[in-house]
Amino acid sequence: xxxxxxxxxxxxxxxxxxxxxxxxxxxxxxxxxxxxxxxxxxxxxxxxxxxxxxxxxxxxxxxxxxxxxxxxxxxxxxxxxxxxxxxxxxxxxxxxxxxxxxxxxxxxxxxxxxxxxxxxxxxx
Length: 124
Known about the structure:
The protein is mainly alpha-helical.
């Protein structure tokens, strides 16, 4: 009889452990994924992860999320200057080249497509 009680107690403990592990896994799954940080010239910078199946755009830094929003709302392919205008960014060469670099980065990571005429469009 004592063996049965011991086994029941072990099962109760195992059930509590399984419940805790399940709650922990659920909590981890609900936490937003932060993009990996990198280092450039000794400064921490956010990197743009490659597009993978099931990956949401919230892993992108905020400015890249805004760019993706502009690209999705556009009626067709977007020029760099159009993207700058939509985001309220100055059209001076340094600013537009920085935007071009971001658009190219999104293209390299599989989130945008660059057309032969230099315009950008969403991949979907």
